[in-house]
Amino acid sequence: MYFLTTAGDSTTSENNAIYVIDEQVVEKYLSEEVMNSNFGGEIFVAYEILETDKNEGEIYLWALIQEYYEEGEALQTGSGMSVPIVLSVSVHNNDSLEVLNHSLPRDGTYYSEDIKEMFPKKIQSKILGYSSNDIGDLIEEMENKVKENY
Fold it and tell me: Which of 5, 43, 67, 86 could form a disulfide with 31 if both were Cys (CB 3.0 to 4.6 A apart)?
């Protein structure tokens, strides 16, 4: 179960995981480390936390990452991705979360094999069945962020 606090943090609580996740830390990491801007635009991020594992120091999420740039008077989309991601994290003494690195499944025939190796069994079917309806919520969230900034 995930709770959003007024400070912009999400708290996750599972059998083996309790994290206070600073959404700005996660968004900054995803926008700066996962995908490059190919058109000189700004990277926007929306994501869904699927699971956490404090014992392994991992956060499992689905991320929508999209570049937006201006061309004349029009706002254009550049590079983008919609993928499941494993974030390796460390919690410091002051309970601040640091994202150390990330892992992405490979494309093509390796995709389902990688999902089974990288993600907990209880979320594998959700990842493999992630639909346009699921992504629709992330698209709406991202579009709202873009409207606020342009």
Answer: 43
